[in-house]
Amino acid sequence: MNTFGRLYRLTSFGESHGKGIGGIIDGCPAGVVIDLGFIQNELSRRKPGQSKITTQRKEPDSVEFLSGIFEGKTQGTPIAFAVWNKDQHSKDYDNLKNIFRPSHADYTYTAKYGTRDHRGGGRSSARETIARVVAGAIAKLILQQLGITISAFVARVGEIGVDKPYTELDLSKTEDTIVRCPDPLTAEKMISRIEEAGRNHDTVGGVITCVASGVPAGWGEPVFGKLHAGACHAGY
Fold first, then answer.
1. How far apart are CA 106 and CA 27, in angstroms?
2. Looking at residue 9, what DSSP letter applies?
3. DSSP of 42-101, one letter per residue?
4. Using CA of residue 54, residue 55, residue 57, residue 59, what is the dihedral sign?
5. Exposed/middle/buried for 47, CB within 10 Å: 0-12, 13-18, 19+?
6. Is 108 helix (H, G, I), strand (E, B) or coil?
7. Separation CA 87–CA 39 (nearest Å)
């Protein structure tokens, strides 16, 4: 399945080198003012080619809404949207057609479906997250009406981590560094670590910290639908 959520539900579609990436949002309440500039800014934070430590693919990642919005407001009906791929170079992946990349979904997809799209990772590409960003941006607009804000930052890259609690960080500076870490000194070390991994043709993992402010008491279910359990589920 490619659907996430219950009351607010996203179904995503698309592949890295297909025509585009998109989704359908169901459960969005009517009357939410859609700030296109805000949504596009969220997409711009995600898009490739922004710095030397990300993929150099150049994509405008402009969203086109196909339904569910009229005169700048949601209608309570399904919201369909698409972001069209512009800069896919499929031939660049011909040498991977018969090779399974370590720590990637190549082998898993082949074992599950008997086939895979090797071009840029196909459905398992990071470009699939475009749909989540659009749906998340609209969710943020809904939460803003309730006085709830959500922010996130990179807290660790490999063995390099922020050694302060988030309450001692200025989260408004998260976007000031290409690695999205609000601690400048730690950010420089993280960037060096990523560059080192790249020179060694290796990868390095990391940790992201998410901070939700203004959340009222009582949200979530008492046992299996706990709020933090749902957040952890979203992370996977």
1. 33
2. E
3. HHHHH-SSSSTTS--------EEEEESEETTEE-SS-EEEEEE-----GGGGGGGTT-PP
4. negative
5. buried
6. helix
7. 21
178 sits in the region (left: phi over 0; alpha: psi -120 to 50; else beta) called: alpha
d(CA 149, CA 172): 12
Domains plus CATH for the chain? Answer: 1-145 (3.60.150.10), 148-236 (no CATH)
pLDDT digits (tens, 9 = 90+) for 38-80: 999 999 888 766 667 666 556 678 899 999 999 999 999 999 9
The DSSP annotation for 127-169 comes to GGHHHHHHHHHHHHHHHHTTT-EEEEEEEEETTEE--S-GGGS
Do residues 156 and 206 make contact, with C-beta atoms less than 8 angstroms apart?
yes
What secondary structure letter does DSSP report for 215?
P
Structure tokens at 183: 């601690």
Query: In this structure, which amino acid lies at residue 13?
Result: F
Reference 157, options 123, 196, 121; nearest CA is 196
What is the pTM (predicted TM-score) of this model?
0.83
pLDDT tens per residue across span 126-162: 888 899 999 999 999 999 999 999 999 999 999 999 9
Contact, 193 vs 160, CB < 8 A?
A: yes
